[in-house]
Design brief:
Elements (H helix, E strand, L loop, with lengths): L26 E2 L6 E2 L4 E6 L5 E4 L9 E4 L2 H9 L2 H6 L10 H22 L3 E3 L1 H9 L6 E4 L5 H15 L8 E2 L4 H8 L6 E4 L3 H17 L23 H4 L21
Parallel strand pairs: 7-8
Antiparallel strand pairs: 1-2, 3-4, 3-5, 6-9, 7-9
Helix pairs in contact: 1-3, 3-6, 3-7, 4-5
Length: 265
Amino acid sequence: MTAEPTDDTEADLLDPGLGRGRADAERTCIVTRVAQNPRRLVRFVLAPDGSVVADLRAKLPGRGAWLTVSREAVETAVKRKLFLRAFKTKDATVAADLADQVAAGLRADLRQSLSLANKAGCVVAGFAKVESAIGDKAGIAGVIQASDGSADGRRKIAAALHRRFGDAISSVPVIDDLSSEELDMALGRDHVIHAALVAGVGSTGCLARWRRLRFFEGAATTADEAGTTRVGRTASDLQDDDQTDLPGAQQFAGSRDDGNPQGLD
């Protein structure tokens, strides 16, 4: 993926983070040595105990190092001990599973943004409501499906998307990275299998965080195969919410929060 860093790249690539120091400046990835918009990078800082941690908001104190939003980039930096070079220290602690820690943080960030979108009235939940929203003239900003939902439910949603969008279905984001339990936590209701994002600021922020997670994992962000089961994912016995979503069920709960993990502004 990347070229081996050369010995002449010992220049100080650290900076104090967004909103401090160089205004609107691009940052340089310590692995690829390519300067990019900070939105395409993840900042890392040294914690008080000397451990290297991801600063997803790019606002923690201290001077930080930047990496391309990529699991491979993080794993390469750990393997080649590039954090030690960037921070100019031999005492920093770099966890072997740092890439997994970043992925967990990005997932938590996605859950939090979904919770906020729900509170802003930008989420409908339940198969019937999602199917109706897909067919509505106003349209949807994206579809949300539990990663452990049934293949049959995915096919039904895919069929609804095809009826509404035809070949343009590939332009519809399908968020299926979170489990039903995670969706329950984010939306403050039980047994969420299907949901949809409708237009609004909350949806925009949620999709941005989802794309960030997907970019990190090297996964697609379009719905060419919307509603299908991903490779390696087994079918679930979890009862679909088109069977359990009773009339009058709460649509915008938002009463349970996912905490306040670090994430994008």
